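Today's session is about reading a structure prediction critically. Students often jump straight to the picture, but the first step is always the sequence itself: look for stretches that repeat, for charged clusters, for runs of hydrophobic residues. Only then move on to the predicted structure, which in these notes is written as discrete structure tokens rather than atom positions. Here is the chain we will use throughout the hour.
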Amino acid sequence: MLKALSVKQFNEYIKTTIKHDPILSRVYIKGSVYNIRNNGNHLYFSLKEDEDIIDCVIYYYETSDIRLDFNVGMDVVVKGNLLLNNYSSRVTIAVNSIDKDGISDQYLQFLKMKEEFKNKGYFDENNKKEIKEFPNKIGLITSIDGAAIVDFISVINQKPSDIKIKLIPVKVQGQKAISKICKSIEYLDQLSLDAIVITRGGGSDIDLSVFNSREIIEAAFKAKTPIISAIGHKIDTTLIDLVADKSMQTPTEAGSFVSRNYLDIEVEYKKYLRQMQATVQRIINLYDVKLNSLNKDLSYKNPYRKILELKDNIKVLKLHFDREIQDRFKDEKLKVKLIEARLEASRNLIELRKKQISIKNENGEEIYSKFSVKNREIIEIIFSDGRIKAVIDNG
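Below is the predicted structure for this chain, in token form.
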């Protein structure tokens, strides 16, 4: 019986096999560039052909001999050696040479389709549908397993509102996702909703390519219901952002936009309370007029008992309305206090996060002045919930 290898032994075997294989130790591959990213030291990107993908990396010590003027969608030919990442078990090409080979057919097709839709007026502002100031019924198309649904709903739940959400869980990447998203748009469009939100939590250009499909763009444009896109990336990366009636960068932004006007709840409640008081006062005034009229007729008909009965009814009605107003006012006052407490907690959290922001240069030193940085210098911004890299651009 064969003895089982450990995970470490298996990975070492694969790495040794790659190292001594004359083809794998020095590969020469052509593909379209996608998903370029830089971690501050090394440059990562992917080569794509149709749905097939392989990851590539250019290490910082190789960059002096390699031209880095390639862009997403460009066909290139890379030379390098194959590596196996022990932690992810992913195969990567360590690139030591890269040559341009023109713009890929797939990227040219994207540009052609974008121009076609533009000429048809799909992206025109005068074709955008207006979104209600206080949307009540929202359709949500997203993955049930992603963070987007949590981000979107949690933002809405931070403010008192009567927003109701109709969730349609779908896949948000891959060819099978296209028909699911189209059918979801068509279904929700029949429900007389105030808006349809299409969202996901970001991803690479490859992951987001589904939102450049002709079928989804056509379905979004034909929908009678306003469409809000929040794909989790920079605007204009996908065609869904251009055809949507409102485009947001993240699910959180979309949630904030939908609930943007549900802020002055206290003002609204006070307005309704004044309207109720005015209604009650009008009723009281009406009964006063009737009572005065009866008083004038007393000298002729003397309906003393009937008048007393009417006066008692008025008193009971007034006491009832007074009690109703007082009870409603107490309830609304309590709600206002709860809202104020939530606002104070949010304000304290924002202030705390502001204080926790720091900026460091490439050497890890704190930066306190704009004069301490140089143009094109890479800096690191540290927030309470994560870190980002940025490049200084003095314009």
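Discussion point for the tutorial: The two ends are 69 Å apart (CA to CA).
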